């Protein structure tokens, strides 16, 4: 009987690993489909995180060239400062979607994916600082890609050195955790 249980247990482990691999391998296909269905970005997503407002200023200037795109800002400067920056460039506050649910880079994405899906957004301009972009892209591929949303990255120049590999690997792990469980690990 133990040999039978061993084979059943082995079967379920192989089935689970196969399922998880298929799910992960579907991300590139979902990204390709989203790119095909929405070849041009449909909205702008800016990740907050700096206190000087250089991302907000870059985004406001960039958004002037794309007046039909809504602008999503995830946990940036306080609302009054953001609105002031965008008003100075002639951007209507009606285009702005300010979201302060995120507490870190992973939750910048997880907190907004349902909003993007609800609005049927399949392609985003992703704006963050150049030093932060490798981690943001790694997370975006997994989290946005798993939801069938692709992105076009735009880096804001800075004098800050690129991040080390540790936060990138940590946030890849957290992104995978979210894909499989819905839990971000933000409290870890």
UniProtKB/TrEMBL annotation:
Residue ranges annotated for the DUF218 domain, each copy included: 42-156
UniProt cross-references to InterPro entries, sorted A to Z: Cell_Envelope_Assoc, DUF218
GO CC term (a single one): plasma membrane
Cited PANTHER family: DUF218 DOMAIN-CONTAINING PROTEIN, INNER MEMBRANE PROTEIN, PROBABLE PERMEASE
Protein name: DUF218 domain-containing protein
